[in-house]
Amino acid sequence: MVLISAQPYDYELPPPGCLALIIIDMQRDFMEPGGFGDALGNNVALLQAIVPTLKQLLDAFRVNGLPVFHTIECHRPDLSDCPPSKLNRGGEGLKIGDRGPMGRILVVGEPGNAIIPELAPLPGETVIEKPGKGAFCRTNLEALLQEKGITHLLITGVTTEVCVQTTMREANDRGFECLMVEDATESYFPEFKQATLEMVRAQGGILGWTAPAENILSKLSKPTSVESRT
Known about the structure:
Elements: E1 3-4, E2 11-12, E3 19-24, H1 28-31, H2 36-39, H3 45-48, H4 51-63, E4 68-73, H5 84-87, E5 99-100, E6 103-104, E7 126-130, H6 141-147, E8 152-158, H7 160-173, E9 177-186, H8 190-205, E10 209-211, H9 213-217
Parallel strand pairs: 3-4, 3-8, 4-7, 8-9, 9-10
Antiparallel strand pairs: 1-2, 5-6
């Protein structure tokens, strides 16, 4: 049994191949100066701070041959998959589909909708295009996880209190054992991140666990052979 030191108690790693890394919405428009997030007045440097840690986790999963799933929040160019309740948010500011500093906001294929180069998916890594906040909403993520026999998820990305937390709640309801990586997720609002971490691990881990990346990396230091996962 391999245990990761976590809150509210140790997180038990499953057999090799049953653990996946979920990287939520590390998109240029949210992360980079001149993007949508920056245009809304947010400090994108807060989000950029997690990139080196998340890259370490991603590299460790790749070296060990473990599954990685990336998500992108996006919509079709005609916005037919964007409900009015989402499309009309924002008052007089930029809205989904409007032309922003990096192309049309949250429209698939636009420059700002791409994952940042540091974390760009490799061939064979799944990219989930999601029209909602959660990665399970109107996507095939659940089916893909079940097909691969994945039972445990490490949840990372941005922003902690919106798409990351929503995905973790959805995953918890579907029976996945989830750990949110504390220093591989971030918010434009530090107090929102802290509140989310506390909510996740409250009441004996009502939604799952949290732990810093170093506690995980120390358990993934030895590559897992393909033979041992088949």
